[in-house]
Write a structure and sequence with these properties.
mainly alpha, Arp2/3 complex 21 kDa subunit ARPC3
């Protein structure tokens, strides 16, 4: 991975974080909301691996936490974990499988919501499990799935190698 690859991934995640706090967070549909930063992070982590996913999750979460004046580090922690594990999934399975992006978006959305609920409850914030996990989560999963196709297309275009050819990366084989 070159410096240009890292810069393009960082720029994509920064733009997604800024759009998330300025445009996307203010609206919702059917009780749910789009999470542009989460979907972009999933796309970057699947394409570039666990380290870039974790670093991108931390950076994007820090931008969101700073811009919204929320609990500093909460979104960063959750997105770092999501970025790492989705990147790890991308490293250990075939990235070219058609279901991988959609499965990753569904799993990341569910785990992010459950993690946010758990952390807010641990911090003593007033949260309702019914509102978060039953009323907000199902429409948000659907909205993030709708967002996944154009985001993955854009991420594939932006993160494509600048040279004409690049050797495909081999899958990681796990022992056992």
């Amino acid at each position: 991975m070159t410096g240009g690859d890292v810069a393009r991934a960082a720029l994509l995640l920064f733009a997604a974080a800024i759009l998330q706090v300025t445009l996307v967070a203010s609206g919702g549909i059917a009780g749910g909301s789009f999470d542009l930063l989460l979907v972009v992070l999933v796309a970057v982590a699947l394409a570039r691996g666990s380290v870039v996913g974790a670093l991108g999750g931390f950076g994007g979460g820090l931008v969101v936490d700073t811009a919204t004046l929320g609990t500093l580090g909460l979104t960063s922690l959750l997105l770092t974990i999501v970025g790492y594990w989705i990147g790890r999934y991308g490293e250990t399975t075939g990235r070219d499988r058609a279901h991988a992006p959609y499965l990753s978006v569904v799993v990341a959305t569910i785990l992010y919501a459950a993690g946010a609920f758990g952390l807010h409850a641990l911090l003593g914030n007033d949260v309702s499990a019914r509102l978060v996990l039953l009323d907000w989560l199902p429409p948000s999963v659907v909205l993030n799935l709708v967002l996944a196709l154009p985001v993955f297309w854009l991420a594939r275009r932006v993160l494509a190698p600048s040279g004409a050819t690049r050797a495909p990366r081999a899958e990681v084989r796990t022992a056992g």
